Protein backbone atom coordinates (compact mmCIF):
# COMPACT_ATOMS: atom_id res chain seq x y z
CA UNK A 1 0.00 0.00 0.00
CA UNK A 2 1.37 3.44 -0.96
CA UNK A 3 2.23 5.78 1.89
CA UNK A 4 0.03 8.92 2.02
CA UNK A 5 1.77 11.95 0.50
CA UNK A 6 1.41 15.03 2.74
CA UNK A 7 3.35 17.12 0.22
CA UNK A 8 0.46 16.94 -2.19
CA UNK A 9 -1.26 19.39 0.20
CA UNK A 10 -0.54 22.97 -0.88
CA UNK A 11 -0.16 24.40 2.62
CA UNK A 12 2.39 21.75 3.58
CA UNK A 13 4.59 22.75 0.64
CA UNK A 14 4.10 26.46 1.32
CA UNK A 15 4.95 25.93 5.00
CA UNK A 16 8.32 24.45 4.08
CA UNK A 17 9.05 27.21 1.57
CA UNK A 18 7.93 29.98 3.94
CA UNK A 19 10.12 28.72 6.79
CA UNK A 20 13.13 28.57 4.45
CA UNK A 21 12.70 32.05 2.94
CA UNK A 22 11.61 33.74 6.18
CA UNK A 23 14.19 32.32 8.57
CA UNK A 24 17.38 31.88 6.51
CA UNK A 25 19.04 35.28 6.14
CA UNK A 26 22.35 36.10 4.51
CA UNK A 27 23.40 38.61 7.20
CA UNK A 28 23.19 36.17 10.13
CA UNK A 29 26.91 35.15 10.09
CA UNK A 30 27.97 38.82 10.34
CA UNK A 31 24.98 40.08 12.35
CA UNK A 32 26.84 41.89 15.14
CA UNK A 33 29.66 43.34 13.06
CA UNK A 34 27.13 44.53 10.46
CA UNK A 35 25.55 46.89 12.99
CA UNK A 36 28.95 48.09 14.17
CA UNK A 37 30.30 48.61 10.65
CA UNK A 38 27.32 50.81 9.89
CA UNK A 39 28.63 53.06 12.67
CA UNK A 40 26.48 52.08 15.64
CA UNK A 41 28.01 51.46 19.05
CA UNK A 42 27.85 48.27 21.07
CA UNK A 43 25.50 50.02 23.52
CA UNK A 44 23.16 50.98 20.66
CA UNK A 45 23.34 47.43 19.34
CA UNK A 46 22.30 46.12 22.78
CA UNK A 47 19.40 48.58 22.96
CA UNK A 48 18.18 47.54 19.51
CA UNK A 49 18.28 43.85 20.42
CA UNK A 50 16.37 44.57 23.63
CA UNK A 51 13.70 46.42 21.62
CA UNK A 52 13.48 43.46 19.21
CA UNK A 53 13.02 40.95 22.04
CA UNK A 54 10.50 43.16 23.85
CA UNK A 55 8.45 43.56 20.66
CA UNK A 56 8.26 39.79 20.20
CA UNK A 57 7.25 39.19 23.83
CA UNK A 58 4.56 41.88 23.66
CA UNK A 59 3.12 40.74 20.32
CA UNK A 60 3.61 36.97 20.46
CA UNK A 61 0.39 35.78 22.09
CA UNK A 62 -1.98 38.51 20.75
CA UNK A 63 -0.77 37.76 17.21
CA UNK A 64 -1.45 34.06 17.67
CA UNK A 65 -4.97 34.78 18.89
CA UNK A 66 -5.57 37.10 15.93
CA UNK A 67 -4.36 34.35 13.61
CA UNK A 68 -6.97 31.99 15.08
CA UNK A 69 -9.68 34.66 14.74
CA UNK A 70 -9.07 36.58 11.49
CA UNK A 71 -7.13 33.90 9.64
CA UNK A 72 -3.60 32.54 9.68
CA UNK A 73 -3.00 33.54 6.03
CA UNK A 74 -3.53 37.22 6.83
CA UNK A 75 -0.98 37.10 9.64
CA UNK A 76 1.57 35.37 7.42
CA UNK A 77 1.11 37.97 4.68
CA UNK A 78 1.61 40.68 7.33
CA UNK A 79 4.77 38.91 8.58
CA UNK A 80 6.25 38.59 5.09
CA UNK A 81 5.31 42.18 4.19
CA UNK A 82 6.99 43.39 7.39
CA UNK A 83 10.11 41.45 6.43
CA UNK A 84 10.17 43.17 3.03
CA UNK A 85 9.90 46.61 4.65
CA UNK A 86 12.42 45.88 7.42
CA UNK A 87 15.01 44.69 4.88
CA UNK A 88 14.35 47.65 2.55
CA UNK A 89 14.97 49.99 5.51
CA UNK A 90 18.43 48.49 6.08
CA UNK A 91 19.23 48.35 2.38
CA UNK A 92 18.60 52.06 1.96
CA UNK A 93 19.36 53.44 5.44
CA UNK A 94 21.43 56.65 5.20
CA UNK A 95 24.90 56.73 6.72
CA UNK A 96 26.76 59.70 8.15
CA UNK A 97 24.17 60.80 10.71
CA UNK A 98 24.32 58.27 13.56
CA UNK A 99 21.17 59.57 15.26
CA UNK A 100 19.12 59.23 12.08
CA UNK A 101 20.71 55.85 11.35
CA UNK A 102 19.72 54.63 14.82
CA UNK A 103 16.09 55.60 14.13
CA UNK A 104 16.15 53.54 10.90
CA UNK A 105 17.55 50.55 12.75
CA UNK A 106 15.03 51.02 15.57
CA UNK A 107 12.13 50.85 13.11
CA UNK A 108 13.79 47.80 11.54
CA UNK A 109 13.98 46.00 14.90
CA UNK A 110 10.34 46.75 15.76
CA UNK A 111 9.14 45.51 12.36
CA UNK A 112 11.37 42.44 12.66
CA UNK A 113 9.91 41.64 16.08
CA UNK A 114 6.35 42.07 14.81
CA UNK A 115 7.10 39.84 11.82
CA UNK A 116 8.58 37.11 14.04
CA UNK A 117 5.57 37.25 16.36
CA UNK A 118 3.05 37.20 13.51
CA UNK A 119 4.68 34.23 11.79
CA UNK A 120 5.21 32.28 15.01
CA UNK A 121 2.50 29.63 15.31
CA UNK A 122 0.43 30.82 12.35
CA UNK A 123 2.58 28.99 9.78
CA UNK A 124 2.48 25.71 11.68
CA UNK A 125 -1.23 26.02 12.39
CA UNK A 126 -2.28 26.67 8.78
CA UNK A 127 -0.16 23.74 7.55
CA UNK A 128 -1.30 21.30 10.25
CA UNK A 129 -4.98 22.18 9.78
CA UNK A 130 -4.70 21.60 6.03
CA UNK A 131 -3.24 18.15 6.67
CA UNK A 132 -5.93 17.43 9.25
CA UNK A 133 -8.66 18.40 6.76
CA UNK A 134 -7.25 15.85 4.30
CA UNK A 135 -7.01 13.14 6.97
CA UNK A 136 -3.20 13.37 6.98
CA UNK A 137 -2.55 14.78 10.45
CA UNK A 138 -0.48 11.70 11.26
CA UNK A 139 1.95 12.82 8.52
CA UNK A 140 2.89 16.04 10.36
CA UNK A 141 6.15 14.47 11.52
CA UNK A 142 7.22 13.90 7.91
CA UNK A 143 6.47 17.52 7.03
CA UNK A 144 8.45 18.76 10.04
CA UNK A 145 11.34 16.48 9.14
CA UNK A 146 11.56 17.74 5.54
CA UNK A 147 11.06 21.37 6.60
CA UNK A 148 13.91 21.24 9.11
CA UNK A 149 16.25 19.56 6.65
CA UNK A 150 15.48 22.03 3.86
CA UNK A 151 15.95 24.92 6.27
CA UNK A 152 19.28 23.52 7.46
CA UNK A 153 20.52 23.17 3.88
CA UNK A 154 19.46 26.74 3.08
CA UNK A 155 20.98 27.98 6.32
CA UNK A 156 24.28 26.37 5.33
CA UNK A 157 24.14 28.15 1.97
CA UNK A 158 23.24 31.57 3.40
CA UNK A 159 25.88 31.33 6.14
CA UNK A 160 28.64 30.57 3.65
CA UNK A 161 27.59 33.05 0.97
CA UNK A 162 26.58 35.83 3.36
CA UNK A 163 29.95 35.86 5.11
CA UNK A 164 31.82 35.59 1.80
CA UNK A 165 30.14 38.51 -0.02
CA UNK A 166 30.57 40.70 3.08
CA UNK A 167 34.36 40.28 2.90
CA UNK A 168 35.88 42.86 0.49
CA UNK A 169 39.06 40.77 0.14
CA UNK A 170 37.06 37.76 -1.05
CA UNK A 171 35.02 39.88 -3.44
CA UNK A 172 38.19 41.37 -4.97
CA UNK A 173 39.70 37.89 -5.43
CA UNK A 174 36.44 36.77 -7.04
CA UNK A 175 36.45 39.79 -9.34
CA UNK A 176 40.05 39.09 -10.35
CA UNK A 177 38.98 35.70 -11.69
CA UNK A 178 36.92 37.61 -14.25
CA UNK A 179 39.79 39.94 -15.14
CA UNK A 180 38.71 42.86 -12.98
CA UNK A 181 41.14 44.78 -10.77
CA UNK A 182 38.38 46.59 -8.85
CA UNK A 183 39.33 47.80 -5.36
CA UNK A 184 36.61 47.26 -2.74
CA UNK A 185 36.28 48.42 0.85
CA UNK A 186 33.87 47.41 3.60
CA UNK A 187 31.45 50.22 2.79
CA UNK A 188 31.02 48.79 -0.73
CA UNK A 189 30.29 45.23 0.44
CA UNK A 190 28.40 46.23 3.60
CA UNK A 191 24.91 45.90 2.16
CA UNK A 192 25.35 42.94 -0.20
CA UNK A 193 24.01 40.39 2.36
CA UNK A 194 21.10 42.77 2.99
CA UNK A 195 20.24 43.00 -0.71
CA UNK A 196 20.28 39.21 -0.95
CA UNK A 197 18.00 38.91 2.08
CA UNK A 198 15.63 41.48 0.55
CA UNK A 199 15.27 39.10 -2.39
CA UNK A 200 14.44 36.27 0.03
CA UNK A 201 11.81 38.48 1.68
CA UNK A 202 10.06 38.87 -1.68
CA UNK A 203 10.06 35.08 -2.04
CA UNK A 204 8.61 34.81 1.47
CA UNK A 205 5.81 37.24 0.56
CA UNK A 206 5.06 35.34 -2.64
CA UNK A 207 4.85 32.12 -0.62
CA UNK A 208 2.56 33.66 2.02
CA UNK A 209 0.15 34.77 -0.70
CA UNK A 210 -0.07 31.16 -1.94
CA UNK A 211 -1.29 29.77 1.40
CA UNK A 212 -4.92 28.65 1.45
CA UNK A 213 -6.91 29.57 4.56
CA UNK A 214 -8.32 26.63 6.50
CA UNK A 215 -11.24 27.64 8.71
CA UNK A 216 -11.73 25.94 12.03
CA UNK A 217 -14.86 28.02 12.69
CA UNK A 218 -15.97 30.06 9.63
CA UNK A 219 -17.69 33.40 10.07
CA UNK A 220 -21.38 33.84 9.30
CA UNK A 221 -20.69 34.78 5.68
CA UNK A 222 -18.61 31.66 5.15
CA UNK A 223 -15.24 33.42 5.25
CA UNK A 224 -12.48 32.95 7.79
CA UNK A 225 -12.35 36.59 8.81
CA UNK A 226 -14.50 38.51 11.24
CA UNK A 227 -15.11 42.27 11.63
CA UNK A 228 -12.16 44.02 13.24
CA UNK A 229 -13.96 45.09 16.42
CA UNK A 230 -15.28 41.62 17.09
CA UNK A 231 -11.91 40.13 16.19
CA UNK A 232 -10.04 42.12 18.82
CA UNK A 233 -12.48 41.12 21.55
CA UNK A 234 -12.50 37.52 20.37
CA UNK A 235 -8.70 37.52 20.29
CA UNK A 236 -8.58 38.65 23.91
CA UNK A 237 -11.11 35.99 24.93
CA UNK A 238 -9.26 33.30 22.98
CA UNK A 239 -5.95 34.31 24.56
CA UNK A 240 -7.37 33.92 28.08
CA UNK A 241 -9.14 30.70 27.15
CA UNK A 242 -6.00 29.19 25.60
CA UNK A 243 -3.90 30.19 28.60
CA UNK A 244 -6.34 28.46 30.95
CA UNK A 245 -6.46 25.43 28.65
CA UNK A 246 -2.65 25.08 28.72
CA UNK A 247 -2.58 25.26 32.52
CA UNK A 248 -5.37 22.67 32.77
CA UNK A 249 -3.77 20.33 30.24
CA UNK A 250 -0.79 18.77 32.05
CA UNK A 251 0.77 17.15 28.99
CA UNK A 252 0.85 20.37 26.93
CA UNK A 253 2.02 22.41 29.92
CA UNK A 254 4.82 19.92 30.57
CA UNK A 255 5.93 19.90 26.91
CA UNK A 256 6.06 23.71 26.81
CA UNK A 257 7.91 23.97 30.15
CA UNK A 258 10.50 21.38 29.19
CA UNK A 259 10.91 22.99 25.76
CA UNK A 260 11.27 26.38 27.46
CA UNK A 261 14.09 25.04 29.66
CA UNK A 262 16.07 23.30 26.91
CA UNK A 263 15.57 25.96 24.24
CA UNK A 264 16.57 28.87 26.50
CA UNK A 265 19.82 27.30 27.70
CA UNK A 266 20.86 25.73 24.40
CA UNK A 267 20.07 28.86 22.38
CA UNK A 268 22.15 30.94 24.78
CA UNK A 269 25.08 28.54 24.30
CA UNK A 270 24.68 28.79 20.52
CA UNK A 271 24.73 32.59 20.85
CA UNK A 272 28.05 32.34 22.71
CA UNK A 273 29.50 29.77 20.31
CA UNK A 274 32.15 32.06 18.80
CA UNK A 275 33.58 32.78 22.26
CA UNK A 276 33.70 29.04 22.97
CA UNK A 277 35.46 28.32 19.66
CA UNK A 278 38.12 30.89 20.50
CA UNK A 279 38.80 29.22 23.84
CA UNK A 280 39.22 25.75 22.32
CA UNK A 281 41.91 27.27 20.08
CA UNK A 282 40.05 27.25 16.78
CA UNK A 283 41.10 29.93 14.28
CA UNK A 284 38.51 32.65 13.77
CA UNK A 285 38.74 32.21 10.01
CA UNK A 286 36.74 28.96 10.24
CA UNK A 287 33.95 30.20 12.56
CA UNK A 288 31.61 30.69 9.59
CA UNK A 289 32.41 27.19 8.35
CA UNK A 290 31.65 25.79 11.79
CA UNK A 291 28.31 27.58 11.83
CA UNK A 292 27.51 26.00 8.49
CA UNK A 293 28.61 22.60 9.79
CA UNK A 294 26.18 22.98 12.67
CA UNK A 295 23.46 23.66 10.11
CA UNK A 296 24.33 20.39 8.36
CA UNK A 297 23.48 18.55 11.57
CA UNK A 298 19.92 19.70 10.95
CA UNK A 299 19.83 17.55 7.82
CA UNK A 300 19.97 14.36 9.90
CA UNK A 301 18.61 15.00 13.41
CA UNK A 302 14.97 15.72 12.35
CA UNK A 303 14.78 12.39 10.50
CA UNK A 304 16.04 10.55 13.59
CA UNK A 305 13.69 12.51 15.89
CA UNK A 306 10.76 11.72 13.59
CA UNK A 307 11.42 7.98 13.83
CA UNK A 308 11.76 8.15 17.61
CA UNK A 309 8.56 10.20 18.04
CA UNK A 310 6.53 7.70 16.01
CA UNK A 311 7.91 4.57 17.68
CA UNK A 312 8.66 5.64 21.25
CA UNK A 313 6.81 7.36 24.07
CA UNK A 314 6.99 11.12 24.79
CA UNK A 315 8.91 10.21 27.96
CA UNK A 316 11.62 8.51 25.91
CA UNK A 317 11.83 11.58 23.66
CA UNK A 318 12.27 13.75 26.76
CA UNK A 319 14.95 11.60 28.38
CA UNK A 320 16.93 11.15 25.17
CA UNK A 321 16.89 14.91 24.56
CA UNK A 322 17.97 15.61 28.14
CA UNK A 323 20.80 13.08 27.91
CA UNK A 324 22.01 14.54 24.60
CA UNK A 325 21.95 18.11 25.93
CA UNK A 326 23.66 17.30 29.23
CA UNK A 327 26.38 15.16 27.64
CA UNK A 328 27.12 17.89 25.11
CA UNK A 329 27.13 20.79 27.60
CA UNK A 330 29.17 18.85 30.17
CA UNK A 331 31.75 17.98 27.52
CA UNK A 332 31.96 21.60 26.41
CA UNK A 333 32.68 22.69 29.99
CA UNK A 334 36.12 21.02 29.77
CA UNK A 335 37.18 23.35 26.91
CA UNK A 336 39.35 20.71 25.27
CA UNK A 337 41.41 22.24 22.44
CA UNK A 338 40.13 21.34 18.96
CA UNK A 339 38.21 18.20 20.02
CA UNK A 340 35.87 20.45 21.98
CA UNK A 341 33.99 20.73 18.68
CA UNK A 342 32.56 17.24 19.26
CA UNK A 343 30.54 17.95 22.44
CA UNK A 344 29.45 21.25 20.86
CA UNK A 345 27.95 19.30 17.95
CA UNK A 346 26.19 17.01 20.43
CA UNK A 347 24.74 19.94 22.38
CA UNK A 348 23.56 21.76 19.26
CA UNK A 349 21.95 18.54 18.02
CA UNK A 350 19.76 18.61 21.12
CA UNK A 351 18.39 21.99 20.02
CA UNK A 352 17.10 20.43 16.81
CA UNK A 353 15.53 17.62 18.85
CA UNK A 354 13.75 20.11 21.10
CA UNK A 355 12.36 22.02 18.12
CA UNK A 356 11.01 18.87 16.50
CA UNK A 357 9.50 17.18 19.56
CA UNK A 358 7.75 20.26 20.95
CA UNK A 359 6.13 21.10 17.61
CA UNK A 360 5.20 17.46 17.02
CA UNK A 361 3.44 16.90 20.33
CA UNK A 362 1.86 20.34 20.77
CA UNK A 363 0.26 20.26 17.31
CA UNK A 364 -0.85 16.69 17.85
CA UNK A 365 -2.74 17.42 21.07
CA UNK A 366 -4.06 20.98 20.50
CA UNK A 367 -7.56 21.72 19.11
CA UNK A 368 -7.55 23.47 15.74
CA UNK A 369 -9.60 26.44 16.99
CA UNK A 370 -6.77 27.60 19.27
CA UNK A 371 -3.68 26.02 17.72
CA UNK A 372 -1.98 29.27 16.65
CA UNK A 373 -2.66 30.83 20.06
CA UNK A 374 -1.18 27.89 21.95
CA UNK A 375 1.86 27.86 19.67
CA UNK A 376 2.26 31.59 20.38
CA UNK A 377 2.26 30.86 24.11
CA UNK A 378 5.05 28.41 23.36
CA UNK A 379 6.97 31.11 21.48
CA UNK A 380 6.39 33.55 24.33
CA UNK A 381 7.73 31.02 26.84
CA UNK A 382 10.81 30.42 24.71
CA UNK A 383 11.64 34.11 24.34
CA UNK A 384 11.06 34.81 28.04
CA UNK A 385 13.35 31.92 28.92
CA UNK A 386 16.07 33.07 26.52
CA UNK A 387 15.85 36.67 27.71
CA UNK A 388 15.84 35.77 31.40
CA UNK A 389 18.78 33.39 31.05
CA UNK A 390 20.68 36.06 29.13
CA UNK A 391 20.09 38.68 31.84
CA UNK A 392 20.99 36.32 34.69
CA UNK A 393 24.11 35.06 32.94
CA UNK A 394 25.22 38.59 32.08
CA UNK A 395 24.83 39.51 35.75
CA UNK A 396 26.88 36.49 36.82
CA UNK A 397 29.60 37.37 34.33
CA UNK A 398 29.82 40.91 35.65
CA UNK A 399 29.84 39.70 39.27
CA UNK A 400 32.65 37.25 38.58
CA UNK A 401 34.53 39.83 36.55
CA UNK A 402 34.38 42.23 39.49
CA UNK A 403 35.84 39.55 41.75
CA UNK A 404 38.77 39.07 39.40
CA UNK A 405 39.61 42.73 38.89
CA UNK A 406 42.45 42.47 41.37
CA UNK A 407 44.18 39.99 39.06
CA UNK A 408 46.53 41.42 36.47
CA UNK A 409 44.59 40.29 33.40
CA UNK A 410 44.24 42.25 30.18
CA UNK A 411 40.61 43.02 29.29
CA UNK A 412 40.13 40.27 26.66
CA UNK A 413 41.95 37.70 28.78
CA UNK A 414 39.69 38.56 31.71
CA UNK A 415 36.59 38.11 29.52
CA UNK A 416 37.84 34.68 28.41
CA UNK A 417 38.70 33.61 31.95
CA UNK A 418 35.29 34.59 33.33
CA UNK A 419 33.51 32.82 30.48
CA UNK A 420 35.49 29.64 31.10
CA UNK A 421 34.93 29.77 34.87
CA UNK A 422 31.15 30.24 34.58
CA UNK A 423 30.28 27.94 31.66
CA UNK A 424 29.63 24.99 33.99
CA UNK A 425 26.47 26.81 35.11
CA UNK A 426 24.73 25.85 31.85
CA UNK A 427 24.82 22.04 32.32
CA UNK A 428 24.33 22.46 36.08
CA UNK A 429 21.23 24.65 35.67
CA UNK A 430 19.79 22.39 33.00
CA UNK A 431 20.29 19.29 35.15
CA UNK A 432 18.87 20.81 38.35
CA UNK A 433 15.81 22.44 36.76
CA UNK A 434 15.16 19.31 34.70
CA UNK A 435 15.06 17.18 37.86
CA UNK A 436 12.79 19.73 39.55
CA UNK A 437 10.36 19.58 36.62
CA UNK A 438 10.44 15.77 36.60
CA UNK A 439 9.78 15.69 40.34
CA UNK A 440 6.93 18.19 40.05
CA UNK A 441 5.34 16.17 37.25
CA UNK A 442 5.58 12.98 39.32
CA UNK A 443 3.97 14.66 42.34
CA UNK A 444 1.18 16.07 40.15
CA UNK A 445 0.43 12.62 38.68
CA UNK A 446 0.39 11.02 42.12
CA UNK A 447 -2.11 13.59 43.43
CA UNK A 448 -4.46 13.14 40.47
CA UNK A 449 -4.64 9.36 40.46
Kindly give the count of domains. 2
Helix content: over 70%
Beta-strand residue percentage = under 5%
Q: Output the number of helix runs.
A: 20
Q: Which CATH architecture of the largest domain would you pick?
A: Up-down Bundle
Explain this structure:
The chain has about 450 residues and is mostly helical. The protein has helices at about 10-25, 30-40, 40-70, 70-90, 100-120, 120-135, 140-165, 170-175, 185-190, 190-210, 230-250, 250-270, 275-280, 285-295, 300-310, 315-330, 340-365, 370-405, 410-420, 425-445. The protein folds into two domains: about 1-215, Up-down Bundle (Growth Hormone, Chain: A), CATH 1.20.1250.20; about 240-449, MFS general substrate transporter like domains (Growth Hormone, Chain: A, Up-down Bundle), CATH 1.20.1250.20. The protein is about 80% helix and about 0% strand. It is globular, with a radius of gyration of 23 Å. About 40% of the residues are buried.
In short:
This protein is an all-alpha fold and 449 residues long. Helix content is 78%, strand content 0%.
List the helices and strands and how they pair.
Layout: H1 10-23, H2 31-38, H3 42-70, H4 72-91, H5 98-119, H6 122-133, H7 140-166, H8 168-177, H9 186-189, H10 192-210, H11 228-248, H12 250-271, H13 273-279, H14 287-297, H15 301-311, H16 314-332, H17 341-365, H18 371-403, H19 411-422, H20 425-447
Amino acid sequence: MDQPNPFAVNNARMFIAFRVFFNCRFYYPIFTVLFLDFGLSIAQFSILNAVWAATIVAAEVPSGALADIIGRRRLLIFAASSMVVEMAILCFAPTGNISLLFVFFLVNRVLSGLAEAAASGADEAIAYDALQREGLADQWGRVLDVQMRFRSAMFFFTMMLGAAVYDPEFMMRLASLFGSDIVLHQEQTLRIPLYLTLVLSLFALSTALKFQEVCATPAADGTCEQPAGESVLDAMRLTLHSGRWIVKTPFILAVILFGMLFDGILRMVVTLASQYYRLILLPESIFGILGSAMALVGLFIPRLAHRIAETRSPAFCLWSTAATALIGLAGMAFFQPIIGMVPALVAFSALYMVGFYVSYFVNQRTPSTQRATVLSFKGLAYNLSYGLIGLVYAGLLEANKGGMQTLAHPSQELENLVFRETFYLFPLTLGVVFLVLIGSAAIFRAKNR
